[in-house]
Specification:
The protein contains twelve helices and 24 strands. It has about 500 residues and is of the alpha/beta class. It has two domains: about 30-50 and about 375-505, Immunoglobulin-like (Sandwich), CATH 2.60.40.1500; about 55-375, TIM Barrel (Alpha-Beta Barrel). Helix 1 (about 5-30) runs parallel beside helix 12 (about 465-475) and helix 9 (about 310-320) packs parallel to helix 10. The radius of gyration is 24 Å and the shape is globular. About 45% of the residues are buried.
Length: about 500
Amino acid sequence: MRRISLMTLVSLAFVLLAVAAALSAPSTRSFESVDAAGSLNFVVDANKPTIQWKHYWKECVGSGHALLALREDYRAHLEMARRDLGVKFVRFHGIYDDDLSTLLSVDASGKQTYSFFNLDSIYDFLLSIGMKPYVELSFMPEALASNSTYVFHYKGNTSPPKDYEKWTDLVTAHIRHTIERYGIDEVRSWYFEVWNEPNLDFWTGTQADYFKLYSYTSRAIKQIDSRLRVGGPATAQSQWIPAFKSFVLANNLPLDFISTHEYPTDVQPLQRDIMKKVFTKAREEASPFPVIYSEYNSGLFYPGKHDDPYASAFVMYNVQEVQDIVEFMSYWTFSDIFEEGGFDSLPFHQGFGLMTIHQVPKPAYRAFEILHRTGRERMAVSGPDHPTVGTFAILNQEKKEVIIIAYNHNIPNNPIKTETVTITVSGLPLSANGYGTLERIDDTHCNAAAAWKAVGSPAYLDRELVHLLRRESELQQEKISYTRNSSAITFDSFYLPAQGVAAITLRF
């Protein structure tokens, strides 16, 4: 592994600045000289009724396991995501893992001693920054485990409890403590999810064993307070929903939501619209219960492309595709501060996070940052039914602002190329020629990974290079002119590269 010396760092800094200038210059020149011939033309019509635009994507983000939430860098990253992206909840594994000491000991008589000090520290922090925990009840403390089977680098125990009553004692003590500390009204606003992906290696029991765990856990929670929210089965690949719902209804069990997980790489061969297809089926199966996708991202393994503009185009395409299907989604994960397979030290390693271990935002982070700024009314947009390019527009009446987002997305190894896009807006009270603001995410914009590669992909970074990479990740604003014609305005045409995103902000 290569370290970076001070002299090398200085040289790389100059190289990086040169690279930044080189990367941005062609984009600016090409924007100024775009020919509208062959352009894809989209029309935003402000005269037509709008529909509700829910910010469901920012309800929650995922992270690794609970112990990480005690780290200073984890907290700094989450506070930044809260500020820039507007996220409200965070989900993590392992609140009952032995490394957190929630169940401190069990004596010879079976008496359980708890330590909520670490959990208090985590929850205190979340509330202090205006966030809440989405509480995944996992994994099994060693003292309650029926066998010694583990998952991940940090060894979360995946076995059913040897005594289900002892398990519910733990859950009950934990939740009663949180109510005493934070108040019943606060804890009623949280979500309690029973386990994680019991249909995979995270659970060594059977489906019937998981249903038993859910039965004991959900009843115990509702005995504390009937308005606490509990759900499951938190399965991978949108599985078990019909069987789980049938079991719950047949046994008259409490259920406030159905949760599951889906990644676009779960279904092979890859399909561009797979998330909408799967989500729609899950909603039908779960009805009348709301559906929460408590894990998703641009790909669980290859080709997730988490460091690349691909992930930002994936986000923009899918957020508008599944807008009215699910209650909310939780992007896995907000940061590369993560250690399921050990802690990777490379600055860019295609980790799941929206930002790197050095707090450098990735392209998908910037996509969510743009989305956070959108209003609450989706406008009517007409245009070509293109295989990779789409556009949507969101109105903010209070700010007198429209944000128009164009994306050029396809799954890897499928046809996609740079396209020319022209946007027309009709029906807004604009009386003269003017300009809007254009922001881009693509290979040459908001792409810190490309800048890191351009300076030789150093394995370890000093703060000066981290600072420069953060600058490379930032959204840059350009003026984009429009021309008034009758009751509409038309923006200058612009290039939209493969897996690229462009956002135009128009104030009126």
